[in-house]
Write a structure and sequence with these properties.
The chain is α+β, with helices and mostly antiparallel strands. It folds into two domains: about 1-30, no CATH class; about 45-115, Ribosomal protein L7/L12, C-terminal domain/Adaptor protein ClpS (Ribosomal Protein L30, Chain: A, 2-Layer Sandwich). About 35% of the residues lie in helices and about 25% in strands. The chain has helices at about 55-65, 70-85, 95-105, and strands spanning about 1-5, 10-15, 25, 45-50, 85-90, 110-115. A hairpin with a 4-residue loop joins strand 1 and strand 2. The longest helix has 14 residues, at about 70-85.
Length: about 120
């Protein structure tokens, strides 16, 4: 039996043989990019924890710098807050330097690093 969970992502739920309760597997699409390769153009922007800047100001600046969604900016900000650092952007060196420049407008600590 095959059930389409997310048709646009081509992820299907299939039962294994005769169903014995709720046992099932989820097959990964063959063209998945989770093959251990790094994405982007070899650079990343690392945002460090800041105990002085209000969280909402950091979130707004991350959105301004990276053009990401509010949800992703919240995730990045909280990761930096709780883990001490978070990768907030990956891409070409020039673009990463632009993102870091925008983050530094409000004195956030960040660095551009090779992947």
């Amino acid at each position: 039996m095959q059930i389409e969970l997310f048709p646009h992502l081509e992820i299907h739920l299939e039962t294994i043989g005769e169903p014995e309760g709720d046992t099932a597997t989820i097959e990964r699409p063959a063209d998945s990019q989770d093959n251990g390769e790094k994405t982007g153009d070899g650079y990343r922007v690392i945002l460090y924890n800041d105990d002085y800047t209000p969280v909402d100001a950091v979130v707004r600046q991350v959105i301004k710098a990276t053009k990401c969604s509010l949800l992703k900016a919240n995730k990045i900000t909280l990761e930096a807050h709780y883990k001490g650092r978070a990768v907030c952007f990956r891409g070409a060196r020039e673009k990463c330097q632009q993102v870091a420049l925008v983050l530094r407008e409000i004195r956030l600590q960040c660095e551009v690093d090779c992947d």
